Amino acid sequence: MISLYLWPPGWAHRIPAGWKLLALAIVGGVISVTGDPAWLAAALAGVVALYASLGLRALKEIRRLAPLLPILVAIAGFHAVLGNWLDGVVVVERLAVMVLVANAVTMTTRMSDMLDIVSTVLKPLARVGVPVPAVAFAISLVVRFVPVLLNLWQDRAEAHRARTGKRPSWRALGSFFLDAVRLADRVAESVDARGGLPVLPA
């Protein structure tokens, strides 16, 4: 997970985590109601420009979208078969923008900062018995783990191509899930070694 954090820090690292999560929510809301492919293409170009402003290492992070390409192609193909290819383009553009924006937040925000802001937002729920620290920790892990799992699948797919010379089939899913479970075990052991789940500040 540490490798997801972009180093050295750029201008986006100095923006508070709360503002970045708010921007992520606003972008998600706006693109979910926008059905114009031209506007969505402009949004996608804006996200690429954002990565470019953070440097070459950030631009290389766009490759994290590669494991999603088969899914995006399948979605576009499904809509094309139904005669709504333009709808397929809109869905693909929305997904690409959201994944890249979420990844930008992840690589410019420390895990501790993200955990603090989520805990603050959820703190009122503690009055009705909601285990806020555990929920906040779970949300932070989900945000962090999406690109990690994409990387894991990409590594597994490349290993399959190296061994067989063919594109990965559904059989690669078995080893991918085993790797994901091993990763979850290591994270659980790491959390236990650090004293368990975080405690909500008084």
Automatic annotation (TrEMBL):
It is a multi-pass membrane protein. The chain crosses the membrane at residues 12-32, 38-56, 68-86, 132-153. GO terms for cellular component: plasma membrane. The keyword Transmembrane helix applies. It is found in: Membrane. Keywords: Membrane, Transmembrane, Transmembrane helix. InterPro entries: ABC/ECF_trnsptr_transmembrane. The keyword Transmembrane helix applies. CDD domains: EcfT. Belongs to the CbiQ family. This is Energy-coupling factor transporter transmembrane protein EcfT.
